[in-house]
Amino acid sequence: MSLLVVSDLVVGYAGGPSCFVGNRKITDGSVVVLTGPSGSGKSTILRTLLGTLTPLRGHIQWQGQQGWVPQQTYWEYPLPTTLGEVIAGQVQPPCPDRLAHILQILRLTDRTSQPWNASSGGERQRALLARALSAHPETLLLDEPVSQVDMPTVQLFLDALRHYHQQGGTMLVSAHQPDLIDALSSISSNCHHWHCAEGTVTND
C-alpha cells in the first residue's frame, strides 16, 4: 500500500529557486533516505509534503497519520517548558505504555521534568523524536535530525528508529552524513534513496 503519492510535484518559494520532485510514492514499511547538498531543497520538500508550505505545482496524497521531527534550530521555547511537556504536546494523548517504552529506548525516563532551555541539543532532539513516536504515526518524517548532536545520541536515535520500523513504521528522513546514510539504509531491506540536487530529485 502507498502511504504517500505525489504527482508532478514542484516545491519552492514564489520568485525563488524551485525543485522538481515529480511523480513518486512511499510504500508501507519502507525507508526513504533523502540526500543532497546543503541548500538543495531537502527541508523545503519535507515541509511541503507535511503541508506547512504550498507546492508550486502538483498534488500530494497521504494515507494515515504523519509524525514530524524537525531540525533542532526550529524549536525554541521562550516560556519555561520541560522536556516532558514538549513530549506530551500531541493532539491526542499518547498511550502510556508505548510512551514509557519510547522514553526508555531514548534514555529520557528520568529527564521529563528537566527544563527545555537547560537541556542539551541531544536531549532536545530525543524529546522531539519521543513526541513524534508517541502518537505512533504510520509515516515518520525527519529533517536532518542528528546533524548537531554527539555519537551517543545518534545511536539512541537509530535504536529508536529501528524499533519503530520493526513495529511497522515507515520513514522519510533527510541526511547528508555518509555514515548516517549507511546506518539508515541498513534499517530496512526495503530502502530507497532520493537525491536532491540542481533543482531535481532523482533516484540515487
Structure in words:
With 204 residues, the chain is an alpha/beta fold. The chain has a single domain, classed as Rossmann fold. It has helices at residues 42-50, 83-87, 96-105, 121-134, 151-166, 178-185, and strands spanning 2-12, 18-27, 31-35, 57-62, 66-69, 139-143, 170-174, 191-197, 200-203. The strands form 2 sheets. Strands 5-6-7-3-8-9 form a 6-stranded mixed sheet, with helices on both faces. Strand 6, helix 5 (151-166) and strand 7 (170-174) form a beta-alpha-beta unit. The longest helix has 16 residues, at 151-166. The chain is globular, with a radius of gyration of 17 Å. The chain starts with a strand and ends with a strand. The mean pLDDT is 89.
- Full CATH superfamily name: P-loop containing nucleotide triphosphate hydrolases
Gyration radius (Cα, Å) is 17 Å
Number of domains: 1
Shape category? globular
CATH fold title: Rossmann fold
Largest sheet: 6 strands, mixed
Cα end-to-end separation: 22 Å
Structure class: alpha/beta
Q: Helix fraction?
A: 25-40%
List keywords for this structure.
30% helix, 6-stranded mixed β-sheet, 6 helices, 204 residues, Rossmann fold
